[in-house]
Design a protein that fits this description.
By secondary structure, the chain is an alpha/beta fold. The chain has one domain (3-267): Ribonuclease Z/Hydroxyacylglutathione hydrolase-like (Metallo-beta-lactamase, Chain A), CATH 3.60.15. The chain is built from ten helices and 15 strands. It has helices at 2-6, 49-58, 72-75, 78-83, 161-172, 187-197, 202-216, 226-232, 241-246, 254-267; strands at 9-13, 16-23, 27-34, 40-43, 64-66, 88-92, 104-106, 111-114, 117-123, 132-136, 141-145, 148-149, 152-153, 179-182, 224-225. Strands 1-2-3-4-5-6-7 form a seven-stranded mixed beta sheet, with helices on one face. It has a six-stranded mixed beta sheet with strand order 8-9-10-11-14-15. Strand 8 and strand 9 (117-123) form a beta hairpin. Helix 5 (161-172) packs across helix 10 (254-267) and helix 6 packs antiparallel against helix 7. The radius of gyration is 18 Å and the shape is globular. The model has no long low-confidence stretch (mean pLDDT 96). The chain binds zinc ion and fe (iii) ion. Fe (iii) ion (FE) is lined by residues 71, 73-74, 146, 183-184.
Amino acid sequence: MSNALSALETTELGDLSIVSVPCLNDNFAYLVRDGASGHVALIDAPEAEPVEAALHVLGWTLTHIFITHHHGDHIDGIEDLRARGNVTVIGSSADARRLPVLTESVTPGESFRWGGIEVQVIDTPGHTVGHIVYYMPGPGALFSGDTLFAMGCGRLFEGTAQQMWGGLSALANLPDETVVFFGHEYTATNADFALTVDPHNEMLHRRVHDVIDTLESGGRTTPTTIGLERATNPFLRAVSPDVAREVGLPDADPEIVFAEVRRRKDAA
Ligand code: ZN
Ligand code: FE
């Protein structure tokens, strides 16, 4: 039991306890317990088994599932998990037609209450057109799904670079100390790519060393913070003259620079 417990990495933020649950090859699901209400939410459900194992070790009862987007590696565990009990499944009203049956739909751009916690639903089209992220301003937690990763962002499967940039800009404007829980452990390859478009960024170099140490010792790179991403994420750094120059667009708008950085990452 103690071995299993020590494998669960917990972040405490105000009343929230947040546990990252590695799933499938490189997905992260997150179990979030609100100490005030006792509610337990799962953010995305790649598969049921590791989530059930973590719930068992923690002694928590799942009450809610929040969905960021419709891809199978974020929803395929939902049916099994909801079959085990009374679980409220929450997702975007705008994408409900291709999500599992929702118990409650939420509207992008609006807020809802979960236990004692205010949750803002931020519209982040790009990876998919219906992608949303969940921001809890009280404890300062952001669940960014496949929109914002450590030193990366999601691929543009459905939306345009312009749409993705709009969503990423909204996230970049959140407070620097916001703790970001992202959907995939892509950090090593993201770091390699970041260095190619932002080679003179000292903070990026330091971060890449830290990430290599963390991964080599078997650790996880989640969570990150908005401040760290603003300083080292090559996609958010589309606002930086250094990155613009590096990709050959010295006077271009950030949105254009972003599109070029994304294109280069896709080709890398
Ligand atoms: Zn996805
Ligand atoms: Fe994914």
